[in-house]
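Session log. Operator J.P. requested a structure for one protein chain; no other inputs attached. Running the standard single-chain path with token output.
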Amino acid sequence: MAVAKGACLNHISRESSDVRRLANFYKDIFGFEEIESPKLEFKVLWIKISPDLALHLIERSPDTKLPEGPYSASSPVLDPTHLPRGHHVCFSVSNFDSFVQSLKDKGIETFQRSALNRPIRQVFFFDPDGNGLEVASRDE
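Structure written below.
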């Protein structure tokens, strides 16, 4: 059986009914850079997360059967306390305290906790389309 060699994460995709709004959120909150996106039959915007990782924001198909909104393992409600066990993407920052304060200043509802048996602090919140996000502390 063949095993993939050199496998690594290339991109994360998120559907949205408003890709521009979502792109502006990730640029404003994380300082990510918008990069050249392909021309497709639907709107897409690409955001550079790191040299080898991108966020692909894709226009939601108007005939999709699934509603937009936050989902987690325990509850389909916009409540960040459900995210530690629910679906989310995690980023790390070295300025954790000031980052959390910036979320509060923007009126973003958060849930904070510390990882058990580890000196890592975590904050959970949602993007404008209800996608779960975690930001973990990282030493500078």
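Operator note: The two ends are 42 Å apart (CA to CA).
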